[in-house]
Predict the structure.
Amino acid sequence: YTRSYYEILEKRRSLPVYAQKQEFLQCLMSNQTVILVGETGSGKTTQIPQFVLEAVHVDDAGKNPRKWLVGCTQPRRVAAMSVASRVAEEMDVAIGEEVGYTVRFEDCTSSKTVLKYLTDGMLLREAMTDPLLQRYKVLVLDEAHERTLATDLLFGILKRVLRNRPDLKLVVMSATLEAEKCLEYFSGAPLMKVPGRLHPVEILYTREPERDYLDAAVRTVVQIHMFEPPGDVLVFLTGEEEIEEACRKIVGELGDQVNVVPLYSSLPPAMQQKIFDPATGNRRKIVVSTNIAETSLTIDGVVYVVDPGFAKQKLYNPKTRVESLLVSPISQASARQRAGRAGRTRPGKCFRLYTEKSFNNDLIAQTHPEILRSNLANTVLTLNKLGVDNLVSFEFMDSPAPVTLGGALSDLVDLGALDADEGKFGNLTRTGEMMSEFPLDPQMAKMLIVSPKFNCSNEILSISAMLSVPNCFIRPRGEARKEADEARARFGHVDGDHLTLLNVYNAYKQNNGDSNWCYENFISHRAMKSAENVREQLVRIMSRFNLKICSSDYTSRDYYNNIRKALLAGYFMQVAHLDRTGCRYLTAKDDQMVHLHPSCCLDYKPEWVVYNEYVLTSRNFIRTVTYIRGEWLMDVAPQCYHLNNFKNCETKRVLQK
Ligand code: ADP
Ligand code: MG
C-alpha cells in the first residue's frame, strides 16, 4: 500500500503553515530576511522550502540555473535525511534528484537538485569554498531555537553574505519564541507567526524524585498502557543503549500488545522511517527516542509523553578545556516542548518523572547556546578559513567567554595550526590550513597530517574512519551477548582500542566487505560501509595536499609503535597517567581522575595511555584507549613541555626526568 500523491497533498493542505502560504511568500518577496516562528509540527520544515521553490520557479525560471538552489539547514543529520525523503515523496520525485540532502560524509544530490536539505555544519563547510554561497537563491535556517554552534556561526556569516548579495534571501525558522533575540540580531526583519493548534496537555509530576529514570520510564509506559485510553506514547531517553534497553524491557512487560519503535541517530535510515508507520492491528505505538523527537521530527498520533527530564548534552569546562558529552537535566523550555508533543492530535498527558518543585527550582529556563558549551578550537579554525581573523569583531549572537576563546587559540598554537609570537596569536600556518580542510576535530586532522612522517598514513586513515562512524560492535542482550563479546575479543589488540579498530577494519577488507562475515562476527555492516566511505573521502583530502598514503613493513618491530606515535602526535592533549592506586588514571592536562571505560580492550593497566574521548556518567571514563610510552611524549609532542596545561604533577615530574 503506497500513499498516493493526492492523499499526501490533502494532508499537506491541512497543516497550519498552508493557510499562510500567500502571506509568507509576499513577506519574503518584499524582505531579504524573514523570521518565522511556529509550533513544532505546523509544517515549517517540510512545507516552507517547497513554497519557496514554487515562488523561485515562477520568479525567474531558467534565468540563472546555477543560482537556483534552495537550501534548508538542520542541526541533526537524521532530520536532514528524514525530512528530505519525506519532501521527495510529497513532490513525487526520487530522493537525490530534485530533492536531496547533504550531511557529513554523505552527499545525496545531483545536477537536478533544486531543493537541498543539509546540516548546518555542511553549509558552513560550503561557505569555506564558496564564501558568498553563490549557489543558493534562498537559504532557510531551520531549528534556530536550538542554537547549535554551527547555526550560530552561520548567523554571523550570513549577515555578511546578505550585505554583499542583495539577491539572496534568508528565512530563519524556529519553534519556540526566543525570537526576540533573532529580531534584534536581524534588525528590520519581519516576524511571522504560525498559530499553533495545540490541544491542552495535562502535566503530571512524580511525588518523589525517581532513583532510576529508565525503570521509572518503563513502569510509566506500562501504566499508561493499562489504564489510559488508546493513543500513542512517546518516551524521551538519552541515547542508543538506554533506548534499546528500555525497548526490550517494554516488550518484556507488554509483549505483543504494543509496537515499540526506537529512534536515535545511529539507527539505519529505514528503521528511522518506521516511527512514522501507524501501529498495526489495534496496537498502541510506543516510540522511545532521543531528544530528536523534541522539535526536529514530529510523530503524529502521540497522546502521551513520558519525560524523565534528561538529555545528553555537550558541556565544556573552560578551566580544564575539556569538552564532554554528559547526561544532564534539560531546561524548562525543553520540558515544555516535550509536553507539547502530546497535544498535537487531541488533549494529551505528559508524565514528568521528576517533582514539580524540581521543575521550578532545578531546571534552568533555557538551554545555553552550544557556543557557550564548546571547545572552540575547531570554530576558530573554521572562522579563520572563512576569512574572519578578528574574532572580536565577529557578530556573535552570544559571544563566548574570552577565556574560552583564549583556550581555543592556545590549543591551536600547541597543535601547530596557528603562529604565536610573544603571546600574540598570529596567522593560520600551513598545517592549520590543511587542518581546516578536514571535516574532523583538529586533533584527528593533525594526526592524519603527520601520519606520513611516521610511515603509517594508511593505518591512521583506517583508524580515523573507524572513529568517525557509530560504534561497529554489536552487543545483543541475553544468550548472544557472550558470543558477541568473544567475537569482539578476537579482534582485540594487546596495545589498545585504536589498534583493535584497525584490526576490525583490516579483517573487514580481507573479507571483501562481506555482510555475512559481519553478521557472524557481530560487526555492524552499516558502520563498516560508512567507515569505508569516510576513509575514501579522507584519502581524497590527503591527496589534495600531497600527503603520502603509506605503510611501513607489517612485520617490522616498529610497525605498531609508529602508529601509536602518530596517535599521540594528534592527541597529545588527551593523555592520562596511572595514579598510585594502580587502578585509576589522572589526565595529564588537567588532573581529572578517570577510569578506563568498561568497553576498553586492555586487560592490564599501562602507565601511560592516550584516549579518544572523555565520558562523564556516574563515574568519569576515558573511552577508546591505547597504551603509549611516556618518553614518546617528549619526542612526539615537545610542546608538552611548555604547556602550562599539564597541571598533573606526576606528569610534569616524569616529563622533566
Ligand atoms: P515543523 O517543521 O513545523 O515541526 P514538519 O514540517 O516537520 O513540521 O512536519 C509536518 C508534518 O509532516 C507532521 O505532521 C509530520 O508528522 C509529517 N511528517 C514529516 N516527516 C514525515 C514522514 N517521513 N512520514 C510521514 N509524515 C511525516
Ligand atoms: Mg521542523
Q: What stands out?
A: Residues 15, 38, 40-47, 82, 86, 273, 276, 298, 300 surround adenosine-5'-diphosphate (ligand 1) (CB under 6 Å). The radius of gyration is 25 Å. The chain is about 40% helix and 20% strand. The longest strand covers residues 608-616.
